[in-house]
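Example 3.2
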Amino acid sequence: MFRASYRRVLRWALALLAIVAAISVFSDNLWKDLLMPIIVGMAAGFIVFGIQRLTLFGRAKKLYRESVPLHEVLTFSVTEDGFSFEQASGNFRGKWENLVKWDENDEILAIFSNRCSAFVFPKTEVGAEMIDHIRSEMIASGLQKKGKLRK
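Structure, written as tokens:
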């Protein structure tokens, strides 16, 4: 559902490696002048990336524990001009055309109020009819394809 960016980073790293290999054919002192700084920089980048990936799960668990509304029962309703969420800590009303993206897989449907924040619906809890309705409302509001941001 959520696209991984490490594949994109890997593609750029491989492209850079191909460029360096092409340059190496024409350079006499390539190791000292060009390759060593690039290799050290890439190694440092991969170390930072690895540390971020290793600590991500713990940070996500901590954020979940701190977010009281995520532990409350949520009631989702469709209104005439949009949708609403009701729970013990407060209510939220929104319009379909104010959402920026939607995405889904076999288990969940997510509608995004911005590129970083989503309302996630387990398909087993919501039901196929409501999922189809949400999907059709998103398409009618101008978001034709899942996973694409509104322009």
